[in-house]
């Protein structure tokens, strides 16, 4: 076996398959594009799904990649095992309907064992195969000179994720030798494929050849797919551990530089203490994930991807604390991650000035949360001991984990110092409930669609002419698909998919919706309505039609785009380009497009930005876009190669993939972008631009919705009508006076509220004496209850303050009906024995409400004032129960 480092192993894999005619696909962003089934790109094949499900036919059916990936379904295992990671790289080679078993198995053997490549000793390799897949067994044994006894039948070797593509697979294992054997020879798991440390899986090859149809449970009855595919995965981290003879993935060149830096920061040594080593591993793993995720545009937040980053970052900080690192330190590890990955991911070092401030800010934010979390944990421990219990609540431990990012082991450690254990079962129940909620929220999105043979096998030529023409005379019908099958004709009343030799209809793409229109005969009679247009796997425009009359293959027809819709969509598309450029001009920074939707009546533009855009800035954006409209800028386009387009200064859309030829759209000298959509001829055609709303749609992603032309004018008219109605209500003659009138009324309202508050306070003081005279007793505690009409929370608080000064009783509970709502306050002078928050929780159901607070004071609100008397009456039984 050669001595290779991670850089050489990755590059050699890519070079080998490139020598076999594969196209090297670059590692794509960790943020999935147009795939709501995934939170993160989680495998090498995830970015290629459009090829495997048949929605797009690749230029080259042979592909190879080294794809960065994130999986977070078992974060808690990271650091405790040898090979669990949240961020990892997957090396893979893929075939879409091209080669299959007889090619891929010899290639795998050649890469692994050939002196020219990895040069692994053949006797150290084992493979598993599906028992009924004897062809694979034969290929391994006959075509590779595989050592007898090194092929193992394994019932689990069948890749099946439910409905959709499936098939047998074969896994390749490396024998690490007796020194890694952690089980006796006779142990049932001591074999290649078993749960042991000696035989390490390094490569999985999936033969995707069957379609798991609904209702089928026996894979022997699955029908074959139209195209058989190959999908393989080799985890870089574990392969590197083999070449570097490392006990775990963490003692390799991918992690050790990070661990060495943490040693310097902590003063601790890796490898001296097993529990301590967990923290080193967690930090090394999590900083890689956080660094790559932020580099790709994800930001810490409270949901989705943002929550994952925040949780990982906080978990790393907590493990830093366990190693004795008290100051912020994670940002110092970002450049080290960049240096390790520089050869294949130079963007990390390039983006580190963007990544580091985000990590620093999140660490600073967590330092405040950390203090609050530790305070709460100490309170839980104190309360548990006061109640003479020996076990900390699992629910409380989960709250610390979920809200403050405290790992369970940290809570256990703190509890152990106080002589307590933690109810781990209750914690795990809470964790499972949360995971179940997450799975339910994700819905039933399919990871892979099933190939459509009729569309994939469609080879007819189709030319799009819509950039210059919106009608086409004498177009020829070259393909008809009815009910997923090719057909010679479509009957009146039927829906079908049609392809023409040339078409003016824009296919939905890049956020711009498709053209609609009609199919007519040569005399202008309607034959069908076109209701949608999409790109076929082989790039033809597929028209969804509702036939009015029979249509046949070879028939010559006229095509007419719905011009009203087309013009409206084109104007809004031009507006997205103006908005995109204006955002970069005014806000600047690292703003880039994160998605868009262009409809006839509005546009939607998503972009990366931290925090809301202020109204004053939105006004500036509106103003600049409208200036470009007033300037009547001409809109032109050229088709050229990518290098020439970049020389022109054209901006590429984030995450888009471009072919050899690109179209560059210019809006005067204001904006140049790579673009394939339709546009106005001149900005003056837009008439007017108006922002409707600005909102957040996820961590670090904002959305602007806007309208143009007649829709913008109608919006202004609606706002004017509202203003006129407000003026009428206020009794003002001029619209100019509305603001002054509203401000005057607000000032009056403030003064009246002050007077009301003053009167309420006086009333509270006046009524205090009579309330305090009625002191009762229950369960050994003296208490006061009273209902005071039309009192505010502040008024009730004032009475409580008077009560504290006069030390009237142990407990007081007050209630009031105010503006149709019920208000409750409770206070306790013996908070260690009687908690005000518990009183409120016990009685607030009577007013159909809820609340809480501190042991000394708590309050609640409810929607049932009729229940006030019952709530106050419940105080006595509650005190008796203590």
Automatic annotation (TrEMBL):
NCBIfam families: alaS (TIGR00344). Belongs to the class-II aminoacyl-tRNA synthetase family. Catalyzes the attachment of alanine to tRNA(Ala) in a two-step reaction: alanine is first activated by ATP to form Ala-AMP and then transferred to the acceptor end of tRNA(Ala). Also edits incorrectly charged Ser-tRNA(Ala) and Gly-tRNA(Ala) via its editing domain. Residues 735-762 form a coiled coil. Keywords: Aminoacyl-tRNA synthetase, ATP-binding, Coiled coil, Cytoplasm, Ligase, Nucleotide-binding, Protein biosynthesis, RNA-binding, tRNA-binding. Its EC number is 6.1.1.7. It is an enzyme of class 6 (ligase). Residues 4-718 form the Alanyl-transfer RNA synthetases family profile domain. This is Alanine--tRNA ligase.
């Amino acid at each position: 076996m050669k001595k290779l480092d991670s850089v050489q192993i990755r590059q050699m894999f890519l070079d080998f398959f490139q020598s076999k005619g594969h196209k090297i696909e670059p590692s794509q962003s960790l943020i999935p594009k147009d795939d709501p089934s995934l939170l993160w790109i989680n495998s090498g094949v995830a970015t290629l799904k459009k090829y495997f499900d048949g929605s797009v036919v690749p230029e080259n059916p042979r592909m190879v990649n080294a794809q960065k990936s994130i999986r977070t379904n078992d974060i808690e295992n990271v650091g405790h095992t040898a090979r669990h990671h949240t961020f990892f790289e997957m090396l893979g080679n893929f075939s879409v309907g091209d080669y299959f078993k007889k090619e891929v198995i010899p290639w795998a053997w050649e890469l692994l064992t050939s002196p020219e490549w990895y040069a692994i000793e053949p006797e150290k390799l084992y493979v598993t195969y599906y028992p009924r897949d004897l062809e694979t067994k034969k290929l391994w044994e006959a075509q590779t000179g595989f050592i007898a006894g090194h092929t193992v039948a394994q019932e689990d070797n069948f890749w099946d994720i439910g409905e959709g593509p499936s098939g047998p697979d074969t896994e390749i294992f490396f024998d690490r030798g007796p020194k890694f054997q952690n089980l006796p020879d006779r142990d049932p798991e001591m074999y290649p494929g078993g749960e042991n440390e000696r035989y390490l899986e390094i490569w999985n090859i999936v033969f995707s050849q069957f379609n798991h149809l609904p209702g089928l449970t026996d894979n022997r009855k699955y029908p074959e797919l139209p195209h058989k595919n190959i999908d393989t995965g080799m985890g870089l981290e574990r392969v590197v551990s083999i070449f570097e003879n490392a006990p775990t993935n963490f003692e390799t060149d991918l992690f050790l530089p990070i661990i060495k830096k943490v040693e310097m920061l902590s003063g601790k040594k890796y490898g001296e203490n097993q529990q301590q080593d967990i923290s080193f591993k967690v930090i090394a793993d999590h900083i890689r994930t956080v660094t790559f995720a932020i580099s790709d545009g994800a930001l810490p937040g409270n949901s989705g991807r943002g929550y994952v980053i925040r949780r990982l970052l906080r978990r790393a900080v907590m493990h830093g604390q366990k190693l004795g690192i008290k100051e912020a330190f994670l940002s110092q590890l970002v450049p080290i991650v960049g240096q390790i990955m520089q050869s294949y991911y130079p963007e990390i070092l390039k983006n580190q000035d963007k990544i580091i401030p985000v990590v620093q800010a999140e660490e600073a934010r967590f330092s405040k949360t950390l203090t609050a979390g530790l305070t709460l944990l100490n309170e839980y421990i104190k309360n548990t001991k006061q109640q003479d219990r020996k076990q900390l609540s699992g629910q409380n431990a989960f709250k610390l984990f979920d809200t403050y990012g405290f790992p369970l082991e940290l809570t256990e450690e703190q509890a152990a110092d106080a002589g307590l254990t933690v109810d781990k079962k209750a914690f795990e129940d809470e964790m499972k409930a949360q995971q179940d909620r997450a799975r339910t929220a994700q819905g039933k999105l399919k990871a892979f669609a099933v190939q459509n043979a009729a569309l994939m096998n469609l080879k007819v030529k189709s030319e799009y002419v819509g950039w210059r023409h919106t009608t086409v005379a004498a177009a020829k019908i070259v393909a008809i698909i009815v009910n997923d099958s090719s057909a010679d004709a479509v009957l009146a009343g039927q829906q079908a998919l049609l392809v023409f030799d040339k078409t003016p209809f824009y296919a939905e793409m890049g956020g711009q919706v498709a053209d609609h229109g009609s199919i007519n005969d040569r005399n202008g009679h309607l034959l069908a309505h076109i209701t949608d247009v999409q790109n076929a796997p082989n790039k033809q425009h597929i028209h969804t039609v509702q036939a009015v009359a029979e249509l046949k293959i070879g028939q010559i027809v006229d095509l007419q785009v719905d011009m009203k819709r087309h013009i409206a969509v084109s104007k809004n598309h031009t507006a997205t380009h103006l908005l995109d450029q204006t955002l970069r001009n005014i806000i600047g920074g690292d703003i880039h497009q994160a998605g868009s939707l262009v409809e006839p009546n509005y546009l939607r533009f998503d972009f990366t930005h931290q925090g809301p855009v202020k109204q004053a800035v939105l006004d500036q954006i509106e103003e600049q876009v409208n200036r470009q409209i007033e300037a009547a800028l001409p809109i032109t386009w050229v088709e050229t190669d990518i290098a020439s387009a970049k020389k022109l200064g054209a901006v590429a859309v984030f995450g888009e993939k471009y072919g050899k030829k690109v179209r560059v759209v210019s809006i005067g000298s204001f904006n140049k972008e790579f673009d394939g959509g339709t546009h106005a001829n001149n900005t003056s055609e837009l008439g007017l631009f108006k922002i409707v709303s600005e909102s957040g749609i996820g961590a670090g992603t904002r959305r602007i919705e806007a309208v143009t032309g007649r829709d913008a004018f109608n919006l202004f008219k609606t706002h004017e009508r509202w203003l006129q109605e407000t003026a009428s209500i206020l009794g003002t003659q001029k619209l100019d006076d509305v603001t002054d009138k509203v401000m005057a009324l607000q000032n009056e309202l403030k003064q009246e509220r002050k007077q009301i508050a003053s009167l309420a306070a006086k009333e509270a003081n006046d009524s205090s004496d009579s309330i305090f005279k009625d002191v009762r007793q229950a369960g050994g505690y003296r208490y006061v209850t009273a209902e005071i009409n039309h009192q505010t929370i502040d008024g009730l608080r004032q009475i409580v303050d008077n009560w504290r000064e006069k030390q009237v009783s142990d407990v007081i509970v007050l209630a009031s009906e105010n503006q149709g709502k019920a208000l409750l306050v409770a206070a306790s002078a013996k908070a260690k024995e009687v908690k005000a928050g518990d009183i409120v929780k016990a009685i607030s159901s009577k007013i159909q409400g809820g609340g809480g607070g501190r042991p000394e004071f708590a309050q609640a609100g409810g929607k049932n004032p009729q229940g006030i008397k019952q709530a106050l009456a419940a105080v006595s039984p509650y005190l008796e129960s203590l």
